[in-house]
C-alpha cells in the first residue's frame, strides 16, 4: 500500500493526478484523458484536483472487465 513519509502507517484516500497516474502505472496524459472523458471521477478543492484511490482501483477494474468482454 501507499504510505506517506509523515505518517508511515496512514494510507491516503485521495491523491493528486500525478500520483494517481503513478499508482495506476500510467502517464499523466492518459490519466487526464480519463478525467476529461468522465470515466475517472475526481474532485477539485480550491485549485487542487484529487482522485480517490478507491475510484482509481474501480476504474482499473472496469477497464479489466471490459477487456474480458461480456460474461457467459
Task: Tell me what the structure shows.
By secondary structure, the chain is α+β, with helices and mostly antiparallel strands. The protein has three helices and three strands; from the N terminus they run βααββα. The chain has helices at 17-24, 28-37, 53-68; strands at 14-15, 43-45, 48-52. Strands 1-3-2 form a three-stranded antiparallel β-sheet. Helix 1 (17-24) packs across helix 2. The longest helix is centred in the C-terminal third of the chain and has 16 residues, at 53-68. The chain is globular. The mean pLDDT is 88.
Fill in the keyword field for this structure.
72 residues, 3 helices, 14% strand, three-stranded antiparallel beta sheet, alpha+beta, globular
